[in-house]
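quick one before i forget lol
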Amino acid sequence: MEEAASHGGETQVTEKVPELAVDGRRDGVRKGTAGIKTDFLTTKVKFHEFLDSNGQLPKEKEEKKENLPHDSDELKGTTEASEEEPAAKKPKVEQQEENKLTWKQQGKRQRGQNKSRPHVKPTAYEDQRLCQSVAQENRKCHYGDKCKFLHDVAEYMASKPADVGPSCYLYDTFGACFYGVTCRFALAHTTADFQSMRDEARVKAQEGRTPVRNSLDKDLQIRLRKHHVAFDRSAEYLQTIVKAPEPGPKQQQQEEERNGNQPEAPSSDQTPAAEGATEATAPDVEAGTENKTTVKTIGPLTDADVIKLRPCEKKQVDFRDKLYLAPLTTCGNLPFRRVCKRFGADITCGEMAMCTNLLQGQQSEWALLKRHESEDLFGVQIEGSFPDTMTRCAELINNHIDVDFVDINSGCPIDLVYKKGGGCGLMTRTRKFEQIIRGMNYVLDVPLTVKIRTGVHEKYNVAHKLIPEMKKWGVSMITLHGRSKEQRYTKLADWDYINTCSSLASPLPLFGNGDILSYDDAMKARETGVSGLMIARGALIKPWIFTEIKERRHWDISSSERLDNLRNFSNYGLEHWGSDTRGLEKTRTFMLEWLSFLCRYVPVGLLECVPQRINDRPPYYMGRDYLESLMASQHVGDWVKISEMLLGPVPKNFNFLPKHKANAYEK
């Protein structure tokens, strides 16, 4: 406190405001740490004590201590305990025994990532499961006595976990719940004799509506597994890039002996001009020209000539000045994309799917291609390293699902993908990259886009060399992440380099990606001349960033509004994965994955300098209410507590192993 000049005989006392540095940080705030007002800062011990006591115990302890007499035994005991000598040094044998304990028993914090996480199946959380024939359709089971599931509804209901809530989102929305008595909200739509109820008015209102598209048809899955699906257009293109093997010395000698060392005379109907015309057809197809075929024809137009789409007749998509939600592995699922659509995302894209798994008909991989009806501009992203599989996968997508564009992932930095030549590896395999783009563009009727990074190595950018070439190969839009593979997230994205590449790509649309967490970041990024913005981590940390950018403001969102966003996610998850125990626990798992990003957000009202930077980690701070403090916790146990507010208690054997070793939960 410092004393100010007196006015009218009265002395005014003002509080000294800490000076802020040029970057908006208070003196003493470490670089890489978010600047938070001193009134809200706290210590790690006090923070977790506050959360563990639901915001009550620390205060009660203090009041109890104040009310104790000075000569009380309890107060003397605490004073004596604090004044005791430190514990004696442990013998070496005891230290070795302590080292054998687990990290959780020792209380030590692990570091690094869990690269091979064991995924617990949601079915493991149910001791007894009801047969689907009884649960959903109430029909006779085909397996009879050999079925390993229960058929007695009363017996199942006796062992079923308690309901989570009094109302079922599926029943309230659609008028009927597909999961019947297995629903964890079954009391809302089940009679006393375990019969499912229906709201006919709501059911009739939903007739003809298809909320989710692009599901894998069972017949198509069988044909894919038996290799009975024809890829005619892919075969037509692949023939143009296959080179005939050159004959060896023995084959040349045998050919000469067979021909008697005499050169073969040209036939009368084969002229040099005709030979030149025949050889020129393959490059034309490879170059992506749509008005030529591999076979030279004379006379009237054939059906193939008419049906074939020219480049100008392909579906056109206006990408400019749009906000693009990046395809995010694990967290970029359909329920999360629906949350972002509510906040104003213009373009959405499914999670990265492996082309080989799609061609094999894997149900889990095809689930990544599903599209909700609210996604008006939707694409899918596929990953692969060879022209044949990528071209066939593109033709499969073109013929069987509804998308507005297809994206090639050539920016994935994961070693498992890179070492196989996919992801960032395509940027170093220019010839294969060209063949993949030309082949996919040849078989697709929708625009083809590409997502790349600045390069593989940190100090050697190659994107500026690839972009002019990709314009020739037929790409409709490019997204550039301003980091290299080796760099990952250790440094900020290079927006100066993105600006250079955007001028090279013109008039082709180029979207910039990297470090956008606020309206200010978006405005600075748009000054570079990019056609649009792709947002990835920023959307995971604060999905309302799309609203902030469109309304040009910083939103000091309350904790109750943030909880409502999580409630919407849980409802969308129950609709997407199911409202039974299996679907509920799957929804919880994906919510916990998302909460590992949401906890990084610092409310605007707590910041010393707005806005928050994406690479700044928040210190321990107390929120304006208990829920805001709980959402700021980076401990997985508190994330589980938030999920229990919406999805009920976790099962007895529940465990969650997130990507980072420091955040493990086991019950």
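fyi Residues 559-577 form the longest helix (19 residues).
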